[in-house]
Amino acid sequence: MAVNGAQSEKTYAKVLITLENCILSPDKLTETPSVKDGLDKNVEEDLRIIGCEFIQTSGLLLKLPQVAMATGQVLFQRFYYTKSFVKHDVEVGSCTCYYCTSKRNGQIKATKHRIVVVQYASSVRGWLFYLNRPIQPLEYMGNLYFNRKNQVVKAERRVLKELGFCVHVKHPHKIIITYLQILECETNQELAQLAWNHMNDSLRTSAFVRFAPETIACACIFLASRLLKICLPSNPPWYELFDAQLSDLEVTFLILYTCFQVSLDSLQKKVAVLQKELEDKKKKKEGEEKDG
């Protein structure tokens, strides 16, 4: 269509494909879609932890490699910084994210297996918080199964679209070993294992969308060395060699060890209240449009 004799130019959104991890800006980390929908920040963080635990537990039950479970948890974190927990169920989201990464790593499992193990993980978690609640297996080919299957299939397309089909994640596992070799500590298996454990714990937090994997690796080594009382070079600080700052390491520690076990049922009740409010606002708006 011509405008003032000139051909108008169409503008398109762009997708940036990079081998580096996606680091979000402070604004996006603070004003998340869930917060904009009225969800409390602490509730959102608890839902992130629970979703990542579902992915880890499901991966163990399906005997997936650790790298697949780690990638799924990072994708889960990225997705819920673009979409709200109020509008997208945490169980469906976790099931979808670890399926996307299992396909990427060649560890494809049937949809029924994915759905069943997430439901089982949710039931076991409920049993741990409410000891009188029985663990109820999911009825295969039942109504609940078919509803959840349809939700997961639709959610897979939504997750890939929001992530721009970029499901690559750069993990600090190998970086930790490389840094320990530079520090001449690669023979200390206890130090390496403890740093590795801290890295796996950090997957449940937002650390992977806040900091580069090199910074996370330094934080894990720093914390492990302190706990084991192992002296590392301090003048100058060894982590500055890898472009890491002490302030970033401290933030990573706080994120990592301010997490507490919570009940999924209590969180879902809070989400349900907001869902009802959004539905009421939608119906009210539709009614006003009809009257107008």
From TrEMBL:
SUPFAM superfamilies: Cyclin-like (SSF47954). Residues 53-133, 174-258 form the Cyclin-like domain. Residues 264-291 form a coiled coil. GO terms for biological process: regulation of transcription by RNA polymerase II. CDD domains: CYCLIN_CCNL_rpt2 (cd20533). Keywords: Coiled coil, Cyclin. Pfam families: CycT2-like_C. GO terms for cellular component: nucleus. GO terms for molecular function: cyclin-dependent protein serine/threonine kinase regulator activity. This is Cyclin-like domain-containing protein. It comes from Nematostella vectensis (Starlet sea anemone).
